[in-house]
Design goal:
This protein is mainly alpha-helical. The protein has a domain at 3-79: Arc Repressor Mutant, subunit A (Orthogonal Bundle). It is 54% helix and 10% strand. It has a two-stranded antiparallel sheet with strand order 1-2. α2 (16-28) crosses α4 (46-58). The radius of gyration is 25 Å and the shape is elongated.
Length: 125
């Protein structure tokens, strides 16, 4: 997956309302949700919901199904799977880099003073 596509997906999820809408769509399963159902679950203005749904579509995270006069929004599972595998690759790269890090310190550090050596300040005022 190309880097611009990944950035667009993360941009789509970078707003709390979009993340909340996307989460609801993921949990709606194959049935999807109508905008009215989303508005009942997240109390935001209709225009705000329309804007965020459009941004999720642009990010390729959501697709729309028309049934008669009704619209149903669905999570696009292929995009979700692709971004999951990209994150998995990044995680594997980080793990391999962590194995290359030297775990033993090169200098010896003197131990700190034990706690009992510290005296409580007394106020003589």
């Amino acid at each position: 997956m190309e880097i611009n596509k990944i950035a667009l997906i993360f941009l789509g999820l970078s707003h709390p309302i979009r993340l909340q809408v996307f989460n609801l769509l993921v949990h709606s399963g194959v049935n999807g949700l109508r905008p009215q159902e989303l508005l009942e679950k997240i109390e935001i203005p209709h225009a705000t919901l329309s804007f965020h749904l459009k941004q999720l579509q642009i990010s390729d995270l959501v697709w729309v199904e028309r049934k008669g006069t009704r619209l149903f929004y669905h999570c696009k599972s292929s995009t979700l799977n692709n971004i999951y595998f990209e994150l998995l690759k990044l995680s594997e790269n980080i793990a391999s880099l962590n194995k290359a890090i030297i775990t033993k310190p090169r200098i010896k550090v003197k131990p700190h003073l034990p706690v009992e050596n510290f005296k409580e300040p007394t106020s003589q005022e």
